[in-house]
Amino acid sequence: MSWLETLRTGAEAIVSHRLRSALTMLGILIGIAAVILTVGLGEGASSSVNSAISALGSNLLTVTPGSSTSGGIRGGLGTSTALTVADADALANRRDCPDVGAVAPISQRSAVLINGSTNWTTTVVGSSPGWMPVRGRQMAEGSFFTSADVSQARPVAVLAPTTASELYGFVDPVGSSLVIGGQSFTVVGVLTPQGSSGSSGTTQDDQAIVPISTYQQRLTGIFGRNSVSSIQLTALSKDTLSAAYQEADDLLLNETGATTPAAANFTITTQDQILSTATSVDHTLTILLGGIAAISLLVGGIGVMNIMLVSVTERVREIGLRKALGATPAVIRRQFLVEAAVLGLAGGVVGLLLGLAGATGLPHVISNPIVISAPAAVAAVAVSLGIGLGFGVYPATRAARLAPIDALRNE
Question: Is the pTM of this model over 0.85?
Fold first, then answer.
């Protein structure tokens, strides 16, 4: 029997039992679709996180209160370990930190912004003029607040584009007043769009930035406090990132009186470290979900083996007749292997189509991108074919070992 005839015979056997074949393929179909969507979600999440972290700025270092090895919360407001505006000013000193570029103290909270009868809840960031170069932002309208605005704690605000459009529509808000936390502010500028931060649910285009001193005095009501939640700074270039990291580390160790790096009450992280952590989390979730999908494929493979065993039992007399007419065990084995492979391949192709359909529709429901890569799709179909072949070996071998006389005597 030729390969073409073997394929035709296998296809006829599958078509003659449509419902049974469809149910057999169901497990593989679901497993392949799950693999396609899982890998796509993982790729989409990684892409979003990468874009979001890159959008924060280039050569960025972030200093946060508390040691990464302490295991507890340190540096909270009111404690001696909190970062301060003075720390940010010290880091901006070119004599001590020659490889550090811009520096920006950061404090932020959620607040309701009110313009007339329109209100909008967003993140209000307290910072300094260094925020612009640190975050790599540009102005679309007006200007950013100045060092004088910070030193005099003026009630001025810069709006991100989404915040501006939600509060003012198509009207230029520069020069207009708005209320933040019960305090009147003047809008002095609007930022250019930066893009979404992806799966985190926050965007760089929906926030308001005010002077750090104004933030501390008018929005937190704590006079005399200059604690900040973090300090962000940039290296002069990518090549000086390590040098800037070391200079910031040395200066803050000296400022806080820590004698050894292990005693530091602050943590400095780079974009690569943040990206590595986020990617590691995405990979862990992808492996977890992929494991669940693999179980579905295993169940599908067992289903293929069961159905092929039933098929061998039903066709014992046919097998005996073919052997009596000269068919070798290899031909019989190949016939059932081809049938099992066709079942697996068909399940894989339908599962791939289902996964592609899901990748098209799901982003509109879950607001997360799904990135389907061609190698993953090809690998998924190859795996389904392999499952069909692998789980078809035992039934095919069993059929090949049947003795012709015993098979023909079977009732």
Answer: no
